[in-house]
Design goal:
This protein is an alpha/beta fold.
């Protein structure tokens, strides 16, 4: 009896369901993103916040980024479908997602959250994604909105995330033109 239990136990261990393989986000460079997306199609830029997703778009020639919309986060699936619907409406072919690195260049929980968002989005649709360092983008945008545009706090809150998305996307476009 003892040996049968030992055999049963080993069978049980061997027959455990395997963990599904975690799909890695296809982390393209900006050059790879350019090469893997059709020419003359816009890209979207994303600034992923805790409560909102700032969305920006480029022109089809990928010269200029403009703030587009703010998606208020609810559930991931709803947020992703809202984003994909926007992309379809503009025929956008790729995403540049701001990656909030720590000041020393390491990735913390916020950066991991951005990578998880991209990974989950790619489960719904194979969207080419590149990440762009977004360190200090929000503070630079805040400073611009205060000093150059003289916006009050309420108005800044309405535009800062999508403007930060445009800042991130414009930085990527400028880097490509280099």
């Amino acid at each position: 009896m003892g040996s049968i239990r030992a055999v049963d136990r080993s069978l049980r261990l061997d027959s455990r369901p395997r963990q599904p393989h975690r799909r890695r986000v296809i982390d393209l460079t900006l050059e790879q993103l350019r090469d893997q997306t059709p020419p003359n199609t816009p890209w979207f830029g994303l600034d992923l916040g805790e409560k909102t997703i700032g969305v920006a778009t480029s022109d089809p020639g990928r010269m200029i980024a403009s703030p587009l919309q703010l998606i208020r986060k609810t559930k991931f699936t709803d947020d992703a479908h809202a984003l994909l619907k926007l992309m379809d409406g503009r025929a956008a072919s790729g995403l540049v997602i701001g990656l909030p690195l720590n000041m020393d260049g390491t990735e913390g929980p916020r950066a991991q959250s951005c990578r998880a968002f991209a990974r989950n989005l790619q489960r719904l649709r194979a969207v080419p994604v590149a990440f762009q360092d977004e360190r200090l983008s929000t503070s630079a945008v805040e400073r611009f909105l205060i000093e150059d545009l003289d916006l009050n706090r309420k108005r800044r809150a309405q535009v800062v995330d999508r403007t930060a998305a445009a800042w991130i996307l414009q930085g990527a476009l400028d880097r490509l033109r280099g």
